[in-house]
Specification:
It is built from eleven helices and two strands. The termini are far apart. A hairpin with a 2-residue loop joins strand 1 and strand 2. The protein has two domains: 93 residues, no CATH class; 61 residues, no CATH class. Helix 2 packs antiparallel against helix 4, helix 2 packs parallel to helix 5 and helix 5 packs across helix 6. This is Endonuclease-reverse transcriptase. It comes from Brachionus plicatilis (Marine rotifer).
Length: 203
Amino acid sequence: MLNTRQILAHFIYLGCRVTKDSKSSSEIQRRIGLGAHRFQCLKPIWNKPEISIRTISKIYLATVKETTIYGAESWTCSPSDYQKLINFLIRRLMQIVGPRRIGLTEQKLYSQTKTVSLDKIVRTIRLRWAGHIRRMLDTRLPKIVLFGDVLSGKRGMGRSEREWTDCLKKDCERAGIVWTKWVNESKNREKWLIKISSLTSNT
């Protein structure tokens, strides 16, 4: 029988796992498992030679990929988390391409299946969400929660934990966005989406 502490160690809310330490690694691993299960359920499709790679890729993107990255807007990813996502995608794409994967580099594999690395997709989703929240009125609760300051409290000893804004800063660097200017740049929705789309460009 579980005690109260064990029950509150983690729980599922709106389809995502929330843990007491607020880290995302557990949820990312769970999402990878759910994506793998979805991929296995569709195995008969991947093995049909009469279906083109382009069509199969579209099915993959609409099912397995969306299952895997659900809730990625709120993730705080470590380098190992990103690597797990990359490895998961590569293995699945290898299975989709089948014998035709021989001689394909990672980049050619992405190009042939019309996909991009999952770490780039996660970064783009987080940037898109950040821009969406920033454009909200200051009185909106999501904006207050995401960008508000804590007025009191004590930080524990040792190295500080990775925060969502730390990941956002790295995302901006990858997209060529100056960290001190991203708030102003995100005010224009259309221009912001064009700006962050560079992360998932195959060119």
